[in-house]
Automatic annotation (TrEMBL):
Keyword Repressor attached: no
Protein name as it appears in the record: Beta-1,4-glucuronyltransferase 1
Membrane-topology descriptor: Single-pass type II membrane protein
Species name: Takifugu bimaculatus
GO biological process: protein O-linked glycosylation via mannose
Principal localisation: Golgi
Lineage: Eukaryota, Metazoa, Chordata, Craniata, Vertebrata
Length: 431
């Protein structure tokens, strides 16, 4: 009798477990179909004929059309003929809506930066801090050309802040072309929102180190800087590396400063550059930075690799100059340029371009700083603004050909300086 009851109870439990298992299978099947349907819907959103509906009528997906047009031009070759440039591959709402004669204060300062696709994940935190117009030049090679085109389009589609503020430009080798990514479904699989696109970029981050690109391809850093700069129409521009972070509220503080005192046309505003341990949170203001500086968690940029390259900034003077939290941004002091200083700065959009003969590692930024000096510019250090590089720069992190590239660019720099004598015959300045 007891055995019979136990058997009946066992059958009931077993039956219940089977029903639960069947329901789970049905649920998983539903999720799979729903996910597939959602993916098809997202793909249709990305490449369908419309970007949604307005008043019941299809709305044209102008981002898709803009990308298609940009790619159909085939880009333009740089002066060397070695690289193909797609300017304004994707335009932001800010740039698209900018009209001649609009309020100049609405377009006072743009941040310009450059990167390969494996460092593009830094864009998320950079834009979160900056929150103003940003111009990004991306270099891609080989299969990364398709990947970069697809992911840039996905970023501009899924990320509202990127739609609003970021212009993208693409540079590849002259023998390569970028194509419309409509058939590259593998690059879009799993992309459902902005976070998923940055997650994909995060997974791509360690493909290669610094300038060590496969196929012995040279990273054209100065070409990229110029492309990013030329993609802006603002009165002032600051060119930084994508793994650097400006101080918070820099845009608003600089706007207030130039409204109060109109700068001279031959003045650039130096942003003291620092580097911070990877584990540390990037400081937002000078008080936070100085606190980290005093305990060794923040140090001058390139302190280990080339202390002379940033020493003229006079870090001790800047750190020890007291700045009230409520104080407005102003010029703390002015410095005469000396070799081999290569400061990061905010400058008029009319400053000389970077020399595109410099590629890979060495002398690419100092050559432009040198030209600014010979051309008559003065270097004014800002009182409380700064930029911070994520992580300490150390010798062991660089690619194998760094020293070889540095030697080659050193020779090029000597020739470059001689050329400045011809370019600026009336200047008595030399570097």
């Amino acid at each position: 009798m007891h055995l019979s009851k136990k058997c009946s109870a066992f059958k009931v439990v077993l039956g219940a477990l089977l029903i639960v298992a069947l329901l789970q299978l049905l649920y998983l099947s539903f999720l799979s179909k729903f996910h597939g349907k959602q993916q098809r819907y997202r793909y249709s959103e990305l490449f369908g004929g419309s970007g949604g509906k307005t008043n019941g009528h299809p709305e044209k997906n102008w981002r898709k059309e803009r990308l298609r047009y940009s790619l159909s031009t085939g880009g333009i070759f740089d002066n060397s003929g070695q690289y193909r440039v797609y300017k304004s591959l994707i335009k932001s709402d800010f740039t698209t809506n900018l009209k001649p004669g609009s309020d100049p204060s609405s377009n006072i300062l743009t941040l310009a930066t450059h990167t390969t696709i494996n460092n593009l994940h830094h864009l998320e935190s950079l834009l979160e801090r900056w929150q103003n117009p940003l111009s990004v030049a991306i270099f891609a090679h080989g299969e990364d050309v398709r990947f970069a085109t697809a992911l840039v389009y996905a970023l501009s589609f899924f990320c509202p802040q990127i739609q609003a503020l970021v212009d993208f430009h693409l540079v590849c080798l002259s023998g390569e072309t970028a194509s419309f990514p409509e058939k590259d479904r593998e690059h879009f699989a799993g992309l459902e929102d902005c976070a998923s696109v940055f997650l994909r970029l995060e997974k791509h981050r360690d493909k290669y180190k610094n300038y060590d690109i496969s196929g012995n391809v040279s990273y054209p850093n100065n070409l990229l800087r110029n492309v990013a700069r030329s993609g802006t129409e603002s009165a002032y521009v600051s060119v930084i590396d994508i793994d650097m972070m400006p101080s918070a509220d820099l845009h608003q503080q600089f706007l207030a400063m130039v409204r109060k005192h109109k700068p001279a046309g031959d003045e650039v505003f130096v942003l003291p550059a620092f580097e911070i341990r990877h584990a540390r949170k990037i400081p937002a203001n000078k008080a936070e930075l100085v606190q980290l500086y005093q305990v060794g968690e923040v140090r001058p940029f390139y302190e280990e690799l080339c202390p002379r390259c940033q020493a003229p900034t006079n870090y001790s003077r800047w750190v020890n100059s007291h700045v009230r939290e409520t104080a407005t941004l102003e010029v703390a002091y002015t410095i005469a340029w000396v070799d081999p200083w290569e400061p990061f700065y905010i400058g008029p959009n009319s400053v000389p371009l970077f020399d595109e003969n410099f590629k890979q590692y060495g002398f690419n930024r100092i050559s432009q700083s040198c030209e600014l000096f010979v051309a008559g510019y003065k270097f004014s250090v800002l009182s409380s603004a700064f930029v911070v590089h994520r992580g300490f720069k150390i010798q062991g992190e660089f690619h194998a050909r760094k020293d070889e590239e540095n030697k080659r660019n050193r020779v090029l720099f000597r020739s470059f300086k001689e050329g400045l004598k011809t370019k600026y015959p009336s200047s008595i300045r030399r570097c």
